[in-house]
Amino acid sequence: MADQAPTLPPSGERPDASFTEVDAGGGGRFPPRGRPVINGINRIGLWSLYIKEVRRFLKVQTQTIWAPAVTTLLFLVIFSVALGRGEREVLGVNFPTFVAPGLIAMAMMQNGFANSSFSLLSGKIQGTIIDLLMPPLSEGELMTGIVGAAVTRSLAVGFVVALAMLLYPGVSLAMAHPWAVAWFGLMGAGMLAILGLMASIWAEKFDHNAAVTNFVIAPLSMLSGTFYVIENLHGVFQGISRANPFFYVISGFRYGFLGQSDIGDATHVAWAALGLLAFNALLAAIAYRLLKSGWKIKS
Fold first, then answer.
1. What is the span of the domain harbouring residue 121?
2. Where in the cell is it found (predicted)?
3. Which of 164, 199, 204 shows the shortest CA–CA distance to 69?
């Protein structure tokens, strides 16, 4: 039987308002132009973006995951030899055990920043950013996919660095408060992942990204109490350290292992945990607005 032509409404009658075009095969009709087909969360698109970003750093995992473990282990060896002689104890434990959690958290944060700061920037430089802007992904989904992949890399680096730390004599990674290890690790990774996304939005070339890494991220990481307790600093510098959000990530993460930290008792640690959550929410809101505006992305 020959295919029948689609039946049109009688003269003077309006077609169904919900459809304006007829499928070429005659079986169904399309919604009008401008009406979104995907409602709610585009789960398939979000998952595809996340997997794409994860596969990107897994393809060079020697550089993105294993190399940070070697570098961090060298930090531990150097500072333990330089500052840990004579069975020096800090917060009631030997120096390698004291410094190990801080080095793990620092490696997680730095690699989270490195991963998310490369995503949009590489697209802008190579001219492939259209591949991220054209798919039916909202600004929130785009941010979630990029930040989620960066946090995944941070966690992978954290596990690998922790395994490397266990190879060093005298290091103990027994956890006194596992919730603090998980919470502050995620908060630190998320914070740097969002900052990396904001940096990639602003940067126009790799030099700009390197400037943020060298003049902002690295100093804040090194001056966060990773290698010392801030009680040894002058009062003014203690105040400066307490204004550094990296300090709360490092100290809270260390509290999860040692049961002690520079922040204070358990109440102060809990307030620091909530403060980091609020700070990350603020950063996420700013990053979302930047993506929504299209600043330095769509222009």
1. 21-293
2. Cell inner membrane; Membrane
3. 164
